[in-house]
Amino acid sequence: xxxxxxxxxxxxxxxxxxxxxxxxxxxxxxxxxxxxxxxxxxxxxxxxxxxxxxxxxxxxxxxxxxxxxxxxxxxxxxxxxxxxxxxxxxxxxxxxxxxxxxxxxxxxxxxxxxxxxxxxxxxxxxxxxxxxxxxxxxxxxxxxxxxxxxxxxxxxxxxxxxxxxxxxxxxxxxxxxxxxxxxxxxxxxxxxxxxxxxxxxxxxxxxxxxxxxxxxxxxxxxxxxxxxxxxxxxxxxxxxxxxxxxxxxxxxxxxxxxxxxxxxxxxxxxxxxxxxxxxxxxxxxxxxxxxxxxxxxxxxxxxxxxxxxxxxxxxxxxxxxxx
Length: 323
Prior knowledge:
This protein has 323 residues and is an alpha+beta fold. It is 17% helix and 31% strand. It has helices spanning 121-127, 132-141, 149-152, 158-168, 187-192, 197-214, and strands at residues 7-13, 26-34, 38-39, 44-49, 54-59, 65-69, 76-83, 87-89, 94-98, 103-104, 107-111, 241-245, 253-258, 264-268, 273-278, 283-288, 300-305, 311-315, 321-322.
């Protein structure tokens, strides 16, 4: 699973203000291009300092140019990565050293060898065959817990899916593929509005047959055409995105609020953990709530700040609330 759970994508989108026109000195710039397109607009270029925990992403403009200001990248060595569906970096990983002056690093892309690992859930749903009802079933019962890539690249036949469903129905919705959390209430029943076990099993069989018809259970590769979303253009490229790595590899940040001092507070969906992030320094502190009910997932589902700046948190699985 892509480590989106390892980073708090701080929706602290430092939008365009400092980016447009490069009012501040430029620390790093370059052109993103490929043989297929030449200069490429709308490519996400990310820079992460060696040994650091903060990733800063900018987007290439119409001329294929990306740029970071001195306020966005401090001096040091950075590894660059990209996001452009259908493409990957040509050659080995690209590292650059930021010093006192402006650094230059052009990025050359080539066609991706395996597009399946780049598709978003929306693109999988756009691409796969099936009725609207079947796709809504996938959306309601798969993508709320994990991405569709492991589903589509699985080799389960209809019987294998039925066995898998019976196991997953007893996991809480806070579960991840590598971190299942038992639930005191079977999830399948309320998701389908079903109360009879026989009816639930019948739904499992129909659903499993459909998934087995589009995954890799009977063929060596995906046999339908991929439909992808367009890259950003024009004004949509004028954005800066900052991500902060969280201390735990299995973290599930769910809700985020910012207080009057600009401190970001976040909850964990699977565990009773409240986090505090100072975006100015990248420092993160996490607090564990010991008040959990036995047999019920202890994660949080919401966070609000009262007039005094105190965080109030809703407990998941009807477990209560915490201040």
